[in-house]
Amino acid sequence: MRVSDILKVKGNTLYTVTPDTSLHDAVNTMAEHDIGSLVVMEYGDLVGMLTFREIILTLRTNGGSVGTTTIRKVMDDHPITCTPETEVDEVRRMMLEHHVRYLPVMESRSLMGVISFYDVAKAVVEAQGFENKLLKAYIRDWPEEEQHSGR
């Protein structure tokens, strides 16, 4: 299974912001749309990711306030990415190794979507369920062996 398979099921709604967007506005957007990340784009290029991790760190630093800072000051400015052709097993490895929950999906320099740890887990569970159904059907239809008499 590839990332493109997950994107087909997930849909293509993307939420992006610029680095100069206020962190306050970004938090409101994330809460309004119940999302855990925003892709930071500037002049058509991916320049960062903002996730709840960066927001929580900012809240800790500022005594519980996001203040008047912009996303540029708190975003992850070197996010790891994948492509639509990346295998899901590789995405799982990347997410675990780099301790990230969201991966921008890039094709050349174009943003194709974002996949989350949840998206990957859901896809794996659904694939395993489908495989289990096939195996159970195969076992159920298994031809019985003929009984041979020892004579």
TrEMBL record:
InterPro entries: CBS_dom, CBS_dom_sf, CBSX3_CBS_dom, Diverse_CBS-Domain. SUPFAM superfamilies: CBS-domain pair (SSF54631). The keyword RNA-binding does not apply. Keywords: CBS domain. The keyword Hydrolase does not apply. It comes from the Bacteria. SMART domains: CBS. This is CBS domain-containing protein. Residues 6-66, 75-134 form the CBS domain. Gene3D superfamilies: CBS-domain (3.10.580.10).
